[in-house]
Structures are given as structure tokens and as C-alpha cells.
Amino acid sequence: MANNAPKSAEVIIDVPFFDVDAMQVVWHGHYVKYLEVARCELLRSFHYDYNEMSESGYMWPIVDMSLKYVGSALFAHKIKVTATLKEWENRLRIEYLITDLASGKKLTKASTTQVAIDMKTRQMCFESPAVLFEKLGYAKP
Predict the structure, then answer these.
(1) Which DSSP string corresponds to 14-35?
(2) Are 1 and 85 in contact (CB under 8 A)?
(3) Residue 141 banded pLDDT, cuts 50, 70, 90
């Protein structure tokens, strides 16, 4: 990334009623959806969202995901989801932090790993394609 600064994006989400259980706590599975919203914002920030990935001839499925729940998001609270690109040379590894917007309290840490698949051959790429390096402003080594 430029000046070795990691690429990051953040989104603010109003926790909707349909995401919570009877205790008005967000059901654990909905956090994955919040990660996706932040990941899409991050990808858009360097002009390589899912449509652009497909147009470039690659799909990028998630092959690994990890979440650590530290606190609970609650109905009608606003949460901030920050996505930071940590690796891109051979895969996309993104780290996430979900915090309560009002208090700044950490709620969840997570990470996802995506790999490039050539859409024509359906073969996994063992290094990221040149188009990703271009989008990030680097020449492929």
C-alpha cells in the first residue's frame, strides 16, 4: 500500500431488530453479514469490488474465517466495523474490528482469507493476479 499504510475502510451499522434474539443481543451469525458490509466497502475503496473481480476474470471465495466475540452488540445501538487489508501478495487476508460506536468498546475481532480462482480454468491461483497489484498501486513482483 502507499507509504506502507494498510488499506482500511469502516462502516457504521444501526443494529436492526431482526438481527437480535429475545434478549435484544445480536445473534452470533449476523456478525458475518457485518463483516461482508465492511469488506465490500474496503474493496470498493481500491476499485476492486466483486463485480470488478468478476470482470477481471477472477472470483475470490472465502476459504477461512475466524471470529472472536468479546462483547455483545445490542438492538438499536450503532456499531462501527473496520476492515483492514493485511495481506494481498498470495491471498486477501482482511482483519476486522467491531466496536460500539458510542462507547468505543471492542465487541468482536475477526479475519477472513480469500484466494483467487481463475474463472476460465476454475483453478486456484497460488499468488494474487497482477490486476490486484495494479488496483492497489503496485507492480507485481
Answers:
(1) E--GGGB-TTSBB-TTHHHHHH
(2) yes
(3) low
Report the C-alpha gap between 6 and 26 in whole angstroms: 29
Distance from C-alpha of 73 to C-alpha of 13, rounded to nearest angstrom: 11
Q: How far is residue 88's CA from residue 132's CA, in Å, rounded to a whole number? A: 8
CA distance 19 to 96: 19
Residue 3: what pLDDT? Answer: 41
What is the β-pairing status of strands 106-114 and 92-100?
A: antiparallel
Question: What's the pLDDT tens digit per position in 49-84?
Answer: 999 999 999 999 999 999 999 999 999 999 999 999
DSSP 3-state of 81: strand
Amino acid, res. 136: L
Amino acid at 108: T
SS3 58: strand
Does this model's pTM top 0.85? My answer is yes
Burial of 60 (0-12, 13-18, 19+ CB in 10 A): buried
